[in-house]
Amino acid sequence: MRKGDHGKCGVFILVMLKKKELASEVNLTIREVCQRLDESAALVRKESPEEASDYAIAIAKIFETITSEIFVPLYREHSDIAPPIWHEMHESKE
């Protein structure tokens, strides 16, 4: 998949989440999931350092997919629900 090409999943998100209230709920849920994944990586680092690197790589791949397939299309449609850090990161790239 090329950078900026969100495939079928991204198009689905753009089409299906036109309703701002639904988009906002999905945003909060996915961000909570990301927080839990981050917490799981911290747990693995603490309890099993020898496995931490591989686990962190797996979590990073999940975050990359969530970002490209959910957050990018979602925030393009509803930029006002994006966290402030999202705007800061993307303003610096423009």
Brief characterization of the structure:
The chain is an all-alpha fold and 94 residues long. Helix 2 (20-47) runs antiparallel to helix 3 (49-77). Helices cover 80% and strands 0% of the residues.
Task: Give start-end ranges of low-pLDDT stretches.
Answer: none
Proportion in β-strands = under 5%
Kindly state the number of beta strands.
0
Level of helix content?
over 70%
Arithmetic mean pLDDT: 85
Q: Sum up the overall morphology in one term.
A: elongated
Summarize the topology:
Elements (H helix, E strand, L loop, with lengths): L6 H10 L3 H28 L1 H29 L6 H8 L3
Helix pairs in contact: 1-3, 2-3
Would you mind describing this structure in some detail?
- It is elongated, with a radius of gyration of 15 Å.
- The chain has 94 residues and is mainly α.
- It is built from four helices and no strands.
- 80% of the residues lie in helices and 0% in strands.
- It has one domain.
- The longest helix is centred in the last third of the chain and has 29 residues, at 49-77.
Key attributes of the depicted protein:
94 residues, mainly alpha, 80% helix, 0% strand, elongated
